[in-house]
Design brief:
Oligomer: single chain
CATH class: Mainly Beta
Strand order of the largest sheet: 3-2-4-5
Number of strands: 6
Structural class: alpha+beta
Shape: globular
Radius of gyration: 11 Å
CATH topology: Pdz3 Domain
Strand content: 25-35%
CATH superfamily: PDZ domain
Helix content: 10-25%
CATH architecture: Roll
Number of domains: 1
Order of helices and strands: EHEEHEEE
Largest sheet: 4 strands, antiparallel
Number of helices: 2
Low-confidence stretches: 79-88
Distance between the termini: 16 Å
Length: 88
């Protein structure tokens, strides 16, 4: 699931995510589609920290992101190129 954009002052940017990163898993749970990422994150509580497995330029890394209320829609693409609503 490729990240299309990151809010400059949001928690994803603060954690080091950038546009073009590919999110592979959340807390060890695979997220092959945008819908999977949104559903997996929606199960977590606001103000909790999640571990994302991210691939950037062929290298995998863990990124810790503190969840907050989303200011807008999730902007990402996956195999279905779907964009989902703004869940945290």
């Amino acid at each position: 699931m490729r990240v299309l954009a990151v809010a400059p002052s949001g928690p994803a940017a603060q954690a080091g995510l950038t546009a073009g990163d590919v999110v592979v898993a959340v807390d060890g749970e695979g997220v092959p589609r945008t819908e999977d990422l949104a559903a997996t994150i929606a199960k977590r509580s606001i103000d909790k920290t999640v571990r994302l497995l991210v691939c950037r330029k062929g290298e995998f890394r863990d990124v810790m992101v503190a969840l907050q209320t989303s200011p807008g829609p999730l902007r990402a693409s996956g195999p279905t190129d779907a964009v989902t609503s703004g869940t945290p």
